[in-house]
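Cross-check.
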Amino acid sequence: MAELNITERQSGDITILDLSGKVTIGEGSVALRNTIRRLLGEGKKKILLNLGQVGYVDSSGIGELVSSFSAVNRESGSLKLLNLTQKIQDLLAITKLLTVFDVYDSESEAVSNFS
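Predicted model, tokenized:
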């Protein structure tokens, strides 16, 4: 499976990142971190991560999601997750992180829940 690809699009003042591939230690989590940090640097603080095409996340990838979440929160922004695969949902449930993130199955619902 390919490493992580990130496609960026805007919905109003919300930046949607369509992720596909793997979020794993090394390139995947670094690419995600760099993208999130760049968006924050540009003043884009409403970020929706679409994980529907992410086949695999390892513990480092989960760590990166948490660290991105914290970075966005520190900037008084908000980071939400969209289209979790069953695998990722299970992983977040096991690590008790499912309650930390705002998780949505519908993009329009997620977008309308940014304040």
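The longest strand covers residues 46-57. The beta strands are 5-11, 14-23, 46-57, 78-82, 102-104. Passed to J.P. for a second look.
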